[in-house]
Amino acid sequence: MSGTQNLRNNPYKVAIASMIGTAIEFYDYYIYAAAAVLVFNSQFFPKDDDGAAMLLSLSTLALAFFARPVGSALFGHFGDKIGRKKTLVASLLTMGLSTVAIGLLPNYEQIGLLAPILLCIFRFGQGLGLGGEWGGAALVATENAPEGKRAWFGTFPQLGAPIGLFTANGVFFIISSVIGHDALVAWGWRIPFVASLILVIVGLWMRMTLHESHVYKEAEQQGKTKDAPVKEVFKNHMKPILQGTFIMVATYVLFYLMTAFAQVYSRGKPVLSEYGHAMGLGIQPNTFTGFLLIGAVVFGIFTSVSGVYADKMGRRKFLIIVTSAIIVFGLCMPLFLQNGTPMSVLAFLIIGLALMGLTFGPMAALLPELFPTEVRYSGASLAYNLSSIVGASIATLVAMKLNQHYGIIGVGIYLAVNGVLTLIALISTHETKNVDLIAMK
């Protein structure tokens, strides 16, 4: 035991390093989401049909969600077999190189059909990287946390999401303000992708200075590590995988309704669908981006707050309350977006992203606590990323179709139904607040 004590990391250093690493990964991930809405429809797809080009552009977002479970299985295998530190370095490189490659990619006019094919390949690479990233970052933060503060320390890697969201949209906002929207679409969008290389170098330096998690080292010394952890987790831990998957569903649906659907709907032309429902509000792109920057700050604040209360109240009780609020928020969605104004859209984003922070923050503690050390990386990552397929991969496209046929109330019911699924999953679990991560079987 004493040997591993000497290798223990300073928990605050680990927390900051995990936050910076996930912020870089989410920045890379979100600049793609922003570009898919603002740019890629005109850069990488035929311009014959604007509506079809937008749907194709948005559909590439889903590729990463299907890649993420593959990444969680791949990096989870090595994270549980050879350690968290080496695997986190590999995941950051995978994401970073894929992002830079997108920034250097020729467009449809230059290389034709090869452009969207390569875009899809590199988007898949982004998904692989993030699939391996989250589990490792959550584990190094929570496995090194002081007693009784796991949920709060677990919010540090979770803060990477609002920081990445803010930075990604902030960069697009600044570039568009300086060079104009037309230049942004023509070439300016490449700047944040290529600049990611600098951030990756910083992230790698931060991660190389850390020691391996003492929880993992003790499991390794006790011979608890597995040769095939992914196989082990599917064979003996299917129940917590399913519980974790559906615990995250409402979180994912909420987030992509806030950041992708709300952006498409707000920026869309204020015309009626063939079913008589409004397809847009006609808000200027930079206005919505500014709103999203405000929402990202709210998201970050409430992510931090969530950890404090999840440690005091327990993860299960706290998240049951928050999920119930998400269900109510979904049913109230028409109050904000039906015939919405810029101020009602801003209010929608602030409330929605506050709830997002409250539900997202405790996940870095709760999901790893469902699994023993020898399969924790694989199990937590798989639950987190399988949920992205169920809750996020098609959320924007489903919401657009529901709005077209049934109006905003259809989108709100969609969020509420996913909230009910999360509520059922939470009720089926036990409280994990006082679980001993080392002794856990």
From TrEMBL:
<protein>
    <submittedName>
        <fullName>Metabolite-proton symporter</fullName>
    </submittedName>
</protein>
<dbReference type="InterPro" id="IPR005829">
    <property type="entry name" value="Sugar_transporter_CS"/>
</dbReference>
<keyword id="KW-0813">Transport</keyword>
<feature type="transmembrane region" description="Helical">
    <location>
        <begin position="343"/>
        <end position="367"/>
    </location>
</feature>
<keyword id="KW-0472">Membrane</keyword>
<feature type="transmembrane region" description="Helical">
    <location>
        <begin position="286"/>
        <end position="306"/>
    </location>
</feature>
<keyword id="KW-1133">Transmembrane helix</keyword>
<feature type="transmembrane region" description="Helical">
    <location>
        <begin position="12"/>
        <end position="32"/>
    </location>
</feature>
<feature type="transmembrane region" description="Helical">
    <location>
        <begin position="379"/>
        <end position="400"/>
    </location>
</feature>
<feature type="domain" description="Major facilitator superfamily (MFS) profile">
    <location>
        <begin position="14"/>
        <end position="433"/>
    </location>
</feature>
<dbReference type="InterPro" id="IPR005828">
    <property type="entry name" value="MFS_sugar_transport-like"/>
</dbReference>
<dbReference type="GO" id="GO:0005886">
    <property type="term" value="C:plasma membrane"/>
</dbReference>
<feature type="transmembrane region" description="Helical">
    <location>
        <begin position="245"/>
        <end position="266"/>
    </location>
</feature>
<keyword id="KW-1003">Cell membrane</keyword>
<dbReference type="InterPro" id="IPR004736">
    <property type="entry name" value="MHS_symport"/>
</dbReference>
<keyword id="KW-0812">Transmembrane</keyword>
<keyword id="KW-0997">Cell inner membrane</keyword>
<feature type="transmembrane region" description="Helical">
    <location>
        <begin position="87"/>
        <end position="105"/>
    </location>
</feature>
<feature type="transmembrane region" description="Helical">
    <location>
        <begin position="151"/>
        <end position="175"/>
    </location>
</feature>
<feature type="transmembrane region" description="Helical">
    <location>
        <begin position="52"/>
        <end position="75"/>
    </location>
</feature>
<feature type="transmembrane region" description="Helical">
    <location>
        <begin position="318"/>
        <end position="337"/>
    </location>
</feature>
<dbReference type="GO" id="GO:0022857">
    <property type="term" value="F:transmembrane transporter activity"/>
</dbReference>
<dbReference type="InterPro" id="IPR036259">
    <property type="entry name" value="MFS_trans_sf"/>
</dbReference>
<dbReference type="Pfam" id="PF00083">
    <property type="entry name" value="Sugar_tr"/>
</dbReference>
<dbReference type="InterPro" id="IPR020846">
    <property type="entry name" value="MFS_dom"/>
</dbReference>
<feature type="transmembrane region" description="Helical">
    <location>
        <begin position="187"/>
        <end position="206"/>
    </location>
</feature>
<feature type="transmembrane region" description="Helical">
    <location>
        <begin position="406"/>
        <end position="427"/>
    </location>
</feature>
